[in-house]
């Protein structure tokens, strides 16, 4: 019984290790060793590369820019001379004397202004410098 027990333990141990098929007795042939290799491991590496930056635009030769020519000063027309003053009405003689405003009006001299020939304070009723106004 010891032998049968020992054989059963051996058989269980070999079966657990994968040494013999179950239900067969151990043989006296040399033991074969089976090596199990795991399936090959495949490692996939994904590399993302950024495309290189675009090349710089071609440079054109730099042409120096000349400042614009200064503008000539505007042509000024010659000054316009004012027309000669209209001929003044015929001046009364410096010794003009009008007895009253009716006489000055009749001579075409009314109204008379202070400083003009024929003006006098006696003909200027309101003293504003204009005689024989109306």
UniProtKB/TrEMBL annotation:
Provide ranges: composition bias, Basic and acidic residues.
Answer: 113-128
State the residue spans of region: Disordered: 16-134
The answer to whether UniProt assigns keyword DNA repair to this entry is no
For bias type Pro residues, the affected ranges are 50-92
What span is annotated as the signal peptide, if there is one? Answer: 1-18
InterPro entries linked: Excalibur_Ca-bd_domain
Q: Which UniProt keywords apply?
A: Signal
| Highest classification ranks of the organism | Bacteria, Bacillati, Actinomycetota, Actinomycetes, Pseudonocardiales
Domain Excalibur calcium-binding: from-to ranges: 97-133
Give the protein's recorded name.
Answer: Excalibur calcium-binding domain-containing protein
Bias (Low complexity) occurs at: 24-49
């Amino acid at each position: 019984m010891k032998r049968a027990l020992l054989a059963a333990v051996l058989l269980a141990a070999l079966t657990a290790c994968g040494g013999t098929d179950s239900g067969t007795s151990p043989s006296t042939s040399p033991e074969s060793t089976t090596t199990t290799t795991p399936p090959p491991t495949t490692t996939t590496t994904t590399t993302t590369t950024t495309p290189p930056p675009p090349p710089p635009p071609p440079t054109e030769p730099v042409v120096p820019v000349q400042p614009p020519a200064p503008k000539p000063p505007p042509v000024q027309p010659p000054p316009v001379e004012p027309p000669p003053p209209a001929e003044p009405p015929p001046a009364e003689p410096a010794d003009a004397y009008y007895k009253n405003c009716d006489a000055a009006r009749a001579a075409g001299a009314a109204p008379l202004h202070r400083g003009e020939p024929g003006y006098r304070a006696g003909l200027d009723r309101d003293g504003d410098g204009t005689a024989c106004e109306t």
